[in-house]
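note to self: dont lose this again. the chain is below, predicted strucutre after it. 233 aa total, dont forget to put it in the shared folder this time
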Amino acid sequence: MVARQLIVLGGGGFSMENSPLLDRYFLAATAKERPKICFVATASGDAADYQLKFFRAHAAYPCQASQLSLFRPHTADLRSFVLEQDAIFVGGGNTRSMLALWREWQLDQHLREAYEAGVVIGGISAGMICWFDVGLTDSIPGPLTALPGLGWLPGGACPHYDGETARRPGLHAMVGSGAMPDSWAADDGAALHFIDEQLHRAVCSRPDAKAWRITRSEPGLVCEKAMTMHYPG
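---
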């Protein structure tokens, strides 16, 4: 049996910081000397500058980098391409639109098959919350909302916990009211590594970045617990 691995970033990595620690950690989880890693930028509409950041960063690492587009597909056999990868990193952007496109192209099913086969899956922001039952998102204009995800991991999730001022109070309110289940949150520069749907480790690219567990203690009240962090630097 192969391990199922999900590594999700609240923020940081190649798109947000100069530190290579979270990028290198993601690649190292494959246990391959030169892993194939694919960037999926659907949530940003395949933004060209975002893809350029990915390729520039990964040119410095021992890996084979590629990207998967649903706007300009380079193959009719998405399933085979996905299953050929060792790691798949999903970028940030509009989670709601991303999931709608994935389902239309059946990419969600191909990613699930890859996950079950041992491909390291994960990402940042939209690429963090999409794997959970529910994510706290700004995909819809107005206040932050709870968006159903793919349900690979139980509970809720919130990125940019320290990087966007509305995130912490928004998540507390949602969990406290029962609008969201007990949830995981991650600061910018923090990541959660799940193996077989259980938390394996919380990782950070700067010593003060944290990951958090937010639980409902009673109606209207929540408990916020900081995770013990691993700093690979």
